[in-house]
Write a structure and sequence with these properties.
With 100 residues, this protein is mainly alpha-helical. It has one domain. The protein is built from three helices and no strands. The protein is elongated and about 45 Å long.
Length: 100
């Protein structure tokens, strides 16, 4: 029978007011980044297929997509705080992109 006073090897139990674990912040960021990249990719494909594609818009979206990819790369070595900031920024961007 396990010792009731021994520390939990998985860490303390998270309650409703507990901050997210580092992995949670990284996963949230990665999910948001993937969704942002996918949104730009769909927009680029739709714009390219249009009768008169807007080259400036295509260039802007491609650059924005590259920025999101760079965030994904930074996430690999990000601290918990940095991962949370990336998640927040990308989630906010995704809300803006999909709001209309």
């Amino acid at each position: 029978m396990p010792d009731a006073h021994a520390p939990d090897p998985l860490g303390p139990a998270a309650g409703p007011d507990s901050p997210p674990l580092a992995a949670d912040a990284a996963l949230l960021a990665l999910d948001a980044i993937r969704a942002v990249i996918a949104w730009y990719q769909a927009g680029i494909e739709t714009e390219r297929a249009s009768a008169q594609p807007d080259p400036e818009l295509l260039q802007e979206w491609a650059a924005d997509q590259q920025t999101a990819a760079a965030d994904r790369d930074r996430l690999r070595t990000a601290t918990d705080t940095q991962a949370a900031a990336i998640a927040e920024r990308c989630t906010r961007l995704l809300r803006t992109l999909t709001a209309g």
